Amino acid sequence: MMLVVPEIIRKKRDGEKLSVDEIGGLIRSYIAGDIPDYQISALLMAIYFRGLDAEETGELTRAMMCSGELLTFDYLPESKVDKHSTGGVGDKTSLVIAPAVAACGLKVPMISGRGLGFTGGTLDKLEAIPGFQVRLDTHSIRQLIEKHGLALVGQTDNLVPADKRLYALRDVTATVESIPLIVASIMSKKLAEGIDALVLDVKTGHGAFMKTFDRARALAEALVDTGRQMGKRMAALITNMDQPLGNKVGNALEVEEVLAILRGEGPADLIELCRLLSAYMLWLGRAVPTIEEGKDRYDRVIASGQALRKFRDLVSAQGGDPRVVDQPELLPRAGQSVYILSPAAGYVASIPAGVIGWAAVLLGAGRMTVQSAIDPAAGIIFFKKVGDSIEKGERLCELRFNSGISIEDVENSIRQAIQISPHPPLKGALVLDTIE
Amino acid sequence: MMLVVPEIIRKKRDGEKLSVDEIGGLIRSYIAGDIPDYQISALLMAIYFRGLDAEETGELTRAMMCSGELLTFDYLPESKVDKHSTGGVGDKTSLVIAPAVAACGLKVPMISGRGLGFTGGTLDKLEAIPGFQVRLDTHSIRQLIEKHGLALVGQTDNLVPADKRLYALRDVTATVESIPLIVASIMSKKLAEGIDALVLDVKTGHGAFMKTFDRARALAEALVDTGRQMGKRMAALITNMDQPLGNKVGNALEVEEVLAILRGEGPADLIELCRLLSAYMLWLGRAVPTIEEGKDRYDRVIASGQALRKFRDLVSAQGGDPRVVDQPELLPRAGQSVYILSPAAGYVASIPAGVIGWAAVLLGAGRMTVQSAIDPAAGIIFFKKVGDSIEKGERLCELRFNSGISIEDVENSIRQAIQISPHPPLKGALVLDTIE
Fold it and tell me: Is the ipTM of this complex over 0.90?
């Protein structure tokens, strides 16, 4: 098929539907170097304005997915399931869920990314464990799945090259915030993992990419629809990201909190979400007939220590120091610490997750740009969450950091952002909606 | 000023207004090679959807205009005036108007373009005159204006380089059809000529870029507004381009028709438009107090032979063979000829200009792509125009061409396009509206 690229751009510009051949041909030719960036960026902007319908989004996803290597574990009888979060602050659920679900007998080929801006990344958290390797080749990933039932790794170089190219272009042409383009980016990578089922955790609120519930719901529906078009079992939770998830933000600190959760301890919001997401994965993976029984299975592998053992085995198998699991004090620890105290008695009314995420970046826990180095030890520990009562002068949170940080700026930004109210705030639900 | 290009693209994408510094900085940085094509093409698509207001359009025009050399004839006391047409089929008015207005004592520094697709170009018509040179440097253009009062030339390499870059990018990214971008492209080039006043001939209809009157009127208003922002005297005519202008289409054939008009002969529609455009130029150039007196001045320089003499002098000054002016048979003449006869008696109801323009391209008179060579002798002569009565078997038109043309295809496309009706058609006006 001969592609006339300006005519394809014009069609989308004028709100017409692109054909399967046009979308597939565009992606193949772009990756082959036969279409220049400037035509693709114009098309991306036309898509920003005109959108893609469900069929076009599915075809874009398929074409991107097929631009590189595809993993498959079809030769294993167990269901292959995964979870994807659209990104938040303090969201360390992947590190709990993957071993818990694998401990229940399913296969979890979880390919994750790094943090950028105010959102953290699973790979950065894992690398806080001394020795842990996230860059594995396909053969090693396959061995981990076969032997341990899970892998917590980064994208291989051959996986979905079209997304790497397109994302870099979107980032510099103001075309990131387009639901069909977000869907194709997420789903092309997840579907290339060779999974049967996927649970989505679509975050909404101050510390999320989707600031409003309506946008989050629209994204969740499009993600679920695209996965189902390809025969995958799909579900989505829309969850609140107005305040950070759990009590700890920062890579080593979050691993500490993961270990607490795997021992059956830890903060209530994080327990609730890990339990629910695991239950959905078990249900979609047909390990249990109902969500409720999924929660029970999760509780049992936590109580029995099987989930913790699975995590220890994985750390060891991916080159990390397994002693960390029982001695979290072996994790990197920051040299300096500052407490932020409450300026008044009352109730914590707001801990804006976006501000906290950026404060963590300033402490060294995150990245301004993809090139930035991060400090695994840096981060923030919260002693109070929204709705908790607090005395004047009581500890709100602790900042952990190493030298070279202008700590007053970070302190000021957090002090200005956290609100203390004389009255208890209306506390919203953590899970706002579900798509099953 | 530090430009954050993705943020500027986002602003325009979200319908916000760009500042003078942002627009100026973008164009300067783009031409300097500091902004890649893929960011500019995304911005152009955002402009396609969101538009530019009058101030932004003016600033884009100014920034593009200032990207290269600016001509000026400020040291000459006479008004410097020009005419620009948005392009049509059989529109050879420039070759009549420029010498007529120069014969009235004004200066006409007319920089024109080549034909592309179904529209013809002034430079191609001029090059049908043996020896005629259109590629002149600034010094030579200056000498022509000083000595003869007119120049009929192509763009110099240094004139408005930003438009060359932007137009090439728009052409391959489906961002040509945006009124503010069309305005900036036209006006940056015209204003770089050093003119005081400009008459616009905005074509609408089947053989025009603007297919509807409303779009043509919107373009005309934006062009006039942008010129006035820069202190220029401006007027626009909106003229019908449903059928070709005059009786001849094709480069040497159109020069023949120009010579007829300059001798006071030729078809009525072409006389009407040349007379009116000249009158507007004379009026804007303050050579006459009213349009009506402008028409009289035009009539006098035609009747006296001064306009023809001015054209002969110009041909000679630009290297062409001046004998052509009195012996049109010295123009290139095609070796083959086919007549198309009327299939019925009645009235000519329609000669769709777009089809005729493409038929002329197929005969060799125009270009499919900017690289194509053209045959100056090829073209079409009409013996009847819309509204004329015709007998069955009477000649409708003649096709002139050289060997290597699949003439049956051209004949068929014209036969199918021209409509003969038993009743006289309602004849529309040539000039549909004016902006003064």
Answer: no
Which residues of chain B does A41 touch, with a Cβ-Cβ cutoff of 8 Å?
38-39, 41-42, 45
Please tell me whether the overall predicted TM-score, pTM, comes out greater than 0.90 for this model: no
Q: Which two tokens stand for residue B303?
A: 């009747």
Measure in Å the smallest separation between the Cα of B369 and chain A Cα atoms: 14
Question: Active-site residue among A107, A125, A189, A206?
Answer: A189
Burial label for A221, CB within 10 Å (0-12, 13-18, 19+), is middle
Q: In what order do the strands lie in the sheet with B233-240?
A: B81-85, B197-204, B233-240, B431-435
**A38 → closest Cβ in B7, B9, B169:** B169
* Pick from B7, B36, B172: CB nearest A39: B172
| Among A39, A171, A174, beta carbon nearest to B41 | A39
CB A391 within 8 A of CB A345: yes
Q: Is A189 a catalytic residue?
A: yes
Q: Which of A6, A9, A173 sits opposite B39 (nearest CB)?
A: A173
| CB atoms A37 and B40 under 8 Å | no
Q: Name every chain A residue with its beta carbon within 8 A of the beta carbon of B10.
A: 174
Q: CA torsion sign, B16 to B22 to B23 to B26?
A: negative
| Tens digits of pLDDT across chain B (436 residues) | 577 899 999 999 999 999 999 999 999 999 999 999 999 999 999 999 999 999 999 999 999 999 998 999 989 999 999 999 999 999 999 999 999 999 999 999 999 988 877 888 999 999 999 999 999 999 999 999 999 999 999 988 889 999 999 999 998 999 999 999 999 999 999 999 999 999 999 999 998 989 999 999 999 999 999 999 999 999 999 999 999 999 999 999 999 999 999 999 999 999 999 999 999 999 999 999 999 999 999 999 999 999 999 999 999 999 999 999 999 999 999 999 999 999 999 999 999 999 999 999 999 998 877 778 899 999 999 999 999 999 999 999 999 999 888 899 999 999 999 999 999 998 889 999 999 9
The A-side interface with B (CB below 8 A) comprises 5-7, 9-10, 13, 36-42, 44-46, 48-49, 169, 171-175
- For residue A39, the chain B residue with the least C-alpha distance is B173
Q: Which residue of A has its CA nearest to B178?
A: A13
Amino acid B279 reads A
CA distance A363 to chain B (A): 25
Does A7 contact B174 at a Cβ distance shorter than 8 Å? yes
In the annotation, is B189 catalytic? yes
